[in-house]
Amino acid sequence: MRILAIAQKVFIELLRDKRTLLLLFAVPIFIMWLMNAAFSASTETHATIAVVDVSESITKSLDDVKHITAKDYQSSGSAQDALEEEKVDAILSFKDENHYQVTYANTDPSKTNMTRQVINSTLKQVQVQELIDSLKEAQQANLQAQVQANGGKIAQVTEDTRSREDISQSKIKLIENYIYGDKNTTFFTKMTPVLMSFFVFFFVFLISGMALLKERTTGTLDRLLATPVKRSDIVFGYMMAYSLVAALQTIVIVLSTIWLLNLEVLGNIGDVIIVNIIFALVALSFGLLLSTLAKSEFQMMQFIPLVVTPQIFFSGIIPLDAMADWVQSLGKFLPLYYAGHALSKIILNGTSILQLGFDISILLIFLLVLTILNVIGLKRYRKV
Amino acid sequence: MEKLVDLQLISKYFGQQLVLNKIDFGLEAGQIVGLIGPSGAGKSTMIKTMLGMEKADEGKALILNHHMPNRFVLGQIGYMAQSDALYESLTGFENLNFFARMKGLSKKDIPTAIAHTAQVVELTEHLQKTVAGYSGGMKRRLSLAIALLGNPQLLILDEPTVGIDPALRRQVWKELHQLKKTGVGILITTHVMDEAELTDKVGLLLDGKIMAFDSPAALKTNYGVKTIEEVFLKAEGELE
Q1: Does B128 touch chain A (CB under 8 A)?
Q2: Which one, of B104, B125, B201, B213, lies nearest residue A226 by Cα?
Q3: pLDDT range class, residue A161, cuts 50, 70, 90
Q4: What is the pTM of this model?
Q5: Which of A65, A166, A193, B80 shows the greatest Cβ crowding within 10 Å of its Cβ?
Q6: Is residue A178 part of a domain?
Q7: C-alpha to C-alpha distance for B162 and B82, rounded to whole angstroms
Q8: Among residues B65, B42, B39, which one has the least CA distance to residue B54?
Q9: Backbone angles phi, psi at A65, to 5 degrees
């Protein structure tokens, strides 16, 4: 079996290349861990608002809001200085009865948004509160007048007001349920399935492309083709070896994200591995094909911004719904879109691979076409 | 005598450029034929055409009585490329084993074939080392050993003695003459002119054309000179 012999050879070469092994297995875990740390830290925004000439009640209610600190400044000049020194993120100052003025630092749009919302709602709330207070006062005065008129009914009325206060004090409680994960689920969790397929694609693409390129530049490809080996044997041999590599890589990534980063996989881990193997084969045939266009390792690297980077944008890491229609349809020509979608479904929604026939068949079509192109492409080096 | 290589009026173009110009060339069993010519003359293209890596635009390329390109004939050809073309991270044994399997040797024949060829090139004791640790000469010898796997009827050796020391070169030649006696046909390209003297016939390739194709002795008489080197220089001079 020549295919088996080629697969064995490719695999042994990989095993003896310690750097590449590290790149395949340790680097993805490291990057996943880094991204997890980066994304879970940034989910909480904290803003400080400088208040100038603002009433105490407003300052207090602002300060009471979670993740907001309100600081009272004596003059607008000192507040301005604080803003410039980035000690505060916004200045709220009182102009007249109906006007407040806010100045945002706006260096971090998320902080600006939060501050805007908080100030708006607080001002409204305070307004409403003041309205209620004045209403109560009026009621109280009214009541007192009534009491003076007929002394008998006091007890009943006070009871009424008490029961009303009871109602206002009993808060509405929300019981929260999560289909996936818990309240600690971050943006990173949503990215994990896509990241996983991205790593598989990136590393298999690069390493397989380089491997075939090396065969060509060292002359071993010529020597190989000077034997009765079929061109398709070479392509299939490479595929065999790299599907094993992809399976191992997926297992390592999945297990490490489950244990290290508490990733929850709702679907079957076996399904995840199958999707990744198919995707790795697409990446492999892509790598092999593009390597025939490269003359050196450096030229192979030049394909990365062209082939690999665009896939990140359409993989679902950035929500696709928010993009323009034509941009969305552009993504449908890239294999990572389908692999990312299928993996997200399996991991986040628990969908079975059998229900993802569309994604899988598109990936298989990619694979088929690229494989045929590769077998034909090798004709450049031998005419039969 | 059986003709192992029979090129009949081969022409080959790369785009507009004529690389091989109506080449007539032959090699019989039990013959060592040398091919000399400056770089760029078309030696590599000629060899690639014989191996079916390129297809001639005109003429017939018959190897072992088959029209090239033909995949199955390749199993009976031992080919050694100009570069060493070895897998550096594999051991000598693994390299031999891999190419033996590619050539289609049966599983039970492989160990004896490897042992025999390794002995011929004197690498038996180094087989378990990875090729990355081999010296230049050892790599050449391993490369030659791969070409010898499976007792091919035809050997095509592209500059087999570049970078190996004189003692080993003499030994390689001894082995080639041994093979010749068993009926193997050998095509060898070389830059070393005194090596050309050791062949049965020499083909002089200049600008994609075979300028002369005869035994070394006949060439020297025809050109009226004493060495093949002078033949080469004279032929080159005539062309200009």
Answers
A1: no
A2: B104
A3: low
A4: 0.78
A5: A193
A6: no
A7: 9
A8: B42
A9: -70, 140
Q: What is the CATH number of the domain that holds B226?
A: 3.40.50.300
**Same domain (yes/no): A15, A94:** no
Residue A164 lies in a domain: no
Enumerate the residues of chain B whose CB falls inside 8 A of the CB of residue A6: 102
Closest CB to A383: pick one of B53, B98, B102.
Answer: B53
- The pLDDT tens digits for A306-363 are 888 888 777 777 777 777 788 778 778 888 889 988 988 898 888 898 999 999 999 9
| A/B interface, count of CB pairs below 8 Å | 81
Displacement of CA A13 from its chain's centroid (Å): 35
Residues of B in contact with A230 (CB under 8 A): 71
Provide ipTM, 2 decimals: 0.88
Residues A259, A131, single domain; the answer is no
For A358, phi then psi, to 5°, come to: -65, -50
Minimum CA–CA partner of A220 in chain B: B85
Measured between beta carbons, which residues in chain B are less than 8 angstroms from residue A14? none
Q: Do B98 and A382 touch (CB under 8 A)?
A: no
B184 in a structural domain: yes
A379 interfacial to chain B (CB closer than 8 Å): no
Window 73-92 of B, Cβ < 8 Å to A: 73-75, 77, 79, 81-90
What's A58's domain CATH number?
A: 3.40.190
Q: What is the CA angle A53-A56-A57, rounded to 5?
A: 130
The answer to whether the CB atoms of B54 and A383 lie below 8 A apart is yes
> How far A275 CA lies from chain B's nearest CA (Å)?
31
Q: How many domains does chain B have?
A: 1
With CB atoms and an 8 Å threshold, state whether B146 touches A223.
yes
- A75 with A202, same domain? no
Nearest-neighbour CA in chain B from A235: distance (Å): 14
Neighboring chain B residues of A16 at a CB cutoff of 8 Å: 89-90, 130
Residue B22: alpha-carbon gap to chain centroid: 21
Q: Which residue has the tokens 């074939």?
A: B113
Q: State which residues form the domain around A80.
A: 47-148
Do both A108 and A33 map to the same domain? no
Nearest CA in chain B to A14: B89
**Tens digits of residue pLDDT in A36-95:** 787 766 556 788 888 888 888 888 888 888 888 888 888 888 888 888 888 888 888 888
Q: Confirm if A284 and A242 have CB atoms less than 8 A apart.
A: yes
Answer whether residue A91 is part of any domain: yes
Last residue of a domain, one of A96, A119, A148: A148
Please report the residues numbered 26 through 65 in chain B whose beta carbons come closer than 8 angstroms to any beta carbon of chain A: 51-55
What is the total count of domains within chain A? 2
Total number of residues shown for chain B: 240
Q: Do residues A125 and A215 both lie within one domain?
A: no
Name chain A contacts of B52, Cβ cutoff 8 Å: 382-384
Q: Which helix (H) or strand (E) is A91 found in, with range?
A: strand A90-96
How far apart CA A15 and CA A7 sit, in angstroms, is: 12
Domain end, chosen from A148, A176, A203, is at A148
The reply to whether A181 falls in a domain is no
Q: Are residues A274 and A375 in the same domain?
A: yes
